[in-house]
Specification:
Low-confidence stretches of chain A: 1-5, 8-18
Radius of gyration of chain A: 14 Å
Distance between the termini of chain A: 34 Å
Helix content of chain B: under 10%
Strand content of chain A: 35-45%
Strand order of the largest sheet of chain B: 6-1-2-8-7
Strand order of the largest sheet of chain A: 8-1-2-10-9
Largest interface: A-B, 31 and 30 residues
Largest sheet of chain B: 5 strands, mixed
Order of helices and strands of chain A: EEEEEHEEEEE
Radius of gyration of chain B: 15 Å
Shape of chain A: globular
Structural class of chain A: mainly beta
Oligomer: heterodimer
Number of helices of chain A: 1
């Protein structure tokens, strides 16, 4: 179990490999989040529902004294629900374009590991939030484009 | 959340009224509160009429609230972000945190639909604090 990834407050780092991804369990899917966009991984934050929100938005949480929208990663990627997670996490991540990025929380079932993903191996994506699928070891992961998440539809 | 502070309610406006509804915490500038009415007996709900700049005695927009939490002198209000607006298509004055609880600051001109809910039970009003002198001028809860 990956217990803590903290990239501090300075935003995405450039020293990491462009192909480094944090693998997280979201329902029955494994998703790959660009490590440069991950600010922190925490035990699941307490979420307060927001009436009127779509199903993907679990609600609001408090993080570092600031309000933080929490999105349900499994719903975002359309994953079938998995077993009850034993160590659910909130991944605090930067989303949106570089010149307008913002922090959100992604509720996931578990943080798994950091792995390198070759972008050349990514196939069958929607060109938006779900960049596509790629093999990592013996599993197929959904590679996510967090920049696309911070934009209004 | 990354974003600039829109303002604090300590700036001469008398703070914010904090309310709970639908499991969420909400805030509205005290200056925008036209009246506050306890709802039907046993309903445990409140009617808060809000308005932005209406002349005294004008009706506000009714908000139905489960619980009045209290008043705070100021809040550090952050703008809604694009990611939040994408999944919560409502207008609001911003977001803030009070006592480690995130809250939505209501725009009194465009309150979210979740607060503009059903009419109360027929129990009637049992106590009202208004800004219009006699406490009845803004009353429209027949």
């Amino acid at each position: 179990m990956l217990r803590s990834v903290d990239h501090g407050g300075a935003g995405p780092r450039t020293g990491l490999s462009a192909g480094s991804y944090l693998l997280v369990q979201a329902g029955e899917y494994v998703c790959a989040l660009p490590l440069r966009s991950v600010r922190r991984v925490l035990r699941a934050l307490t979420v307060h529902p927001l009436p009127g929100a779509t199903a993907e938005l679990k609600g609001l949480a408090e993080f570092g004294g600031e309000p933080l929208p929490i999105l349900d990663l499994a719903r975002l990627v359309g994953a079938p629900p998995g077993a009850n997670p034993t160590y659910p996490v909130t991944i605090v991540a930067w989303v949106g374009p570089e010149d307008g990025r913002e922090l959100i929380g992604l509720a996931a079932d578990a943080a798994l590991e950091v792995a390198d993903v070759s972008l050349a191996s990514v196939v069958a994506g929607d060109g938006g939030f779900i960049l596509g699928e790629a093999p990592v070891g013996e599993q197929v992961v959904r590679v996510l484009n967090l920049e696309a998440l911070g934009q209004e539809r | 959340m990354v974003g600039s502070t829109l303002g604090t309610a300590g700036s001469g406006k008398g703070g914010y009224l904090l309310m709970r509804h639908g499991g969420a915490l909400w805030g509205v500038e005290n200056a925008a509160v036209v009246s506050l009415t306890r709802g039907g007996e046993g309903g445990g709900r409140f009617l808060v009429a809000v308005g932005a700049g209406e002349p005294a005695g004008e009706l506000g927009i009714d908000l139905w609230i489960d619980e009045i939490v209290g008043v705070v002198a100021e809040l550090a209000v952050r703008p809604l972000t694009a990611a939040l607006r994408r999944f919560w298509p409502e207008a609001a004055g911003g977001l803030a945190v009070h006592a480690e609880m995130p809250l939505v600051v209501v725009d009194p001109r465009r309150p979210p639909r979740a607060l503009r809910g059903a009419l109360p039970d027929a129990g009637g009003d049992v106590g009202r604090v208004g800004r219009d002198g006699d406490g009845e001028g803004a009353h429209r809860n027949a």
